[in-house]
Amino acid sequence: MAKLRGEAFWRETLRSAHYVVAPMVDQSELAWRLLSRRHGAQLCYTPMLHAQVFLRDANYRRENLYGEACPEDRPLIVQFCANDPEVFVQAALLAQDYCDAIDLNLGCPQMIAKRGHYGAFLQEEWDLLQRMILLANEKVSVPITCKIRVFPDIDKTVKYAQMLEKAGCQLLTVHGRTKEQKGPLAGVASWEHIQAVRKAVNIPVFANGNIQCLSDVEECIRKTGVHGVMSAEGNLHNPALFEGRNPLVWEMAEEYLEIVQKYPCPLSYVRAHLFKLWHHTLQVYQQLREELAKVKTLEGIVDVNRELKLRCQEEIANQKEGEKPKEGLPFFHWICQPYIRPGPKERCRENGDSGTEKGVRGKRALEEEEDGNSELLSKNKQKKKLRNPNKSFDPSLKPKYAKCDQCGNPKGNKCVFNMCRGCCKKRAFKEVADCPGHGLLFKTKYEKSLSWQHNQRGIQTPEISQRGDAEVEEMAVLKEAGDS
């Protein structure tokens, strides 16, 4: 049977899907997809998978796609990042029996994509993309789709989309932001670009960007004319988005945790989902935020979720008539609702003017006054600072160490050779010597080895430590000759 293409593929295989859950690294796993499908999602993507890893690692395939069969998880599109036509095709061939289409990720804007040379950082390499899609379209039994980001120029974005269509792409998802628009600089996605692409191609188009509630979905379809709308962050904060509901957070959290019991996933995925669902509540109950971050078991996460529910129910019971949501939220914090990512200025205000006010934690950057200078601490340094408030990152305050005679690294304080452990190990091995300071006992072990050999042969010989293997062997031969 010939594979369906274009409109027929969208209408029959994808069942005319309008509501789509985006591919999200470590977040659109099976359990979350099932939760989303229960609440209105009509099509889901797997998380972005690395084609090279998928090809060589059977465990990676099993964990991300070959797990327990789940008929409810269809239609499903598997997304790969790749930059080599053969690798992409071979990975797609391994996945084609478990999905309804294979998607090529051309939209990831993160630094890891830049280092790996994939995602949005391939959008200028049109010859390579044509070869990848042409070969996959020829070899793979399911349709090939693409997810892209736009160029600043609408005309170039349209030509890009037309090139992908000509190469064999059967469905195009357009994220209306450029690859530079990410994190605090994300800004508003351009539906103008998406509308232009939709008018210029003859294949189905999905829109991505600016989707926080069902009314946004309807408005996007009306303004751009797309076949469907994809949501990522909106779905993470409210998995009932496509139902047009704003349920109580603990209802969604408890339902998700029940699904995880049946379809397990890494604990880090579960924790990340609860951080999103409880985002606004965790700004109120900071202690429970810390507990959720530290908990090491699924049962522990369930306990934190239960405690958050109890705190919210107590707050509801004590609520005064006519009381309105705080912090400018559309709903009370225990109700699933959008999270608007703050820009750089808003983030500074959100974290406090100096970032050091009591009870205020910066999400990505924390300013500390050290010797009168303002230093911007990385996220990793923030964590270290939280564990040890007295820790300083001033290089001039770091302790000075004596250097190894060989390489310049810090030497061991009790090393007999005045070296670091690496250099000491090489020298001690070469000279068959001991260094108690580094716990290296080459001489001692060698002597014990010789002693054991002599005991095995019944030879009593003095000064074992002064004789080498060759001498011992010679003595054994002479003794055997004398015996004969």
Short description:
One of its GO terms (molecular function) is tRNA dihydrouridine synthase activity. This protein is an alpha/beta fold and 484 residues long.
Taking the alpha carbons of the first and last residues, their distance comes to 86 Å
What is the strand tally?
13
Structural class: alpha/beta
Please give the domain count: 3
Radius of gyration, in angstroms, nearest whole number: 31 Å
User: Which residues form runs of ≥5 with pLDDT under 50?
Assistant: 350-375, 461-467, 477-484
Write the CATH homologous superfamily of the largest domain.
Aldolase class I
Assign a percent range to the helix content: 40-55%
Percentage of residues in DSSP E strands? 5-15%
Shape assignment: globular
Q: What CATH architecture of the largest domain would you give? A: Alpha-Beta Barrel
Average pLDDT taken over every residue: 87
Strands of the widest sheet, in order across it, are 1-2-4-5-6-7-8-9
CATH class of the largest domain: Alpha Beta
Q: The CATH topology of the largest domain is what?
A: TIM Barrel
Task: Note the total helix count.
Answer: 21
Q: What do these coordinates show?
A:
It contains 21 helices and 13 strands. It has helices at residues 6-13, 30-38, 51-56, 58-64, 85-95, 111-116, 126-139, 154-167, 191-200, 214-224, 233-237, 249-262, 267-277, 279-284, 286-294, 298-317, 344-350, 379-387, 421-431, 442-457, 469-483; strands at 19-21, 43-45, 49-50, 76-81, 101-106, 144-149, 172-175, 205-208, 228-231, 366-370, 373-377, 434-435, 440-441. Helix 9 (191-200) links the parallel strand 7 (172-175) and strand 8 (205-208). Helix 8 packs across helix 9 (191-200). The radius of gyration is 31 Å and the shape is globular. The chain starts with 5 loop residues before the first helix and ends with a helix. GO terms for molecular function: flavin adenine dinucleotide binding; tRNA dihydrouridine synthase activity.
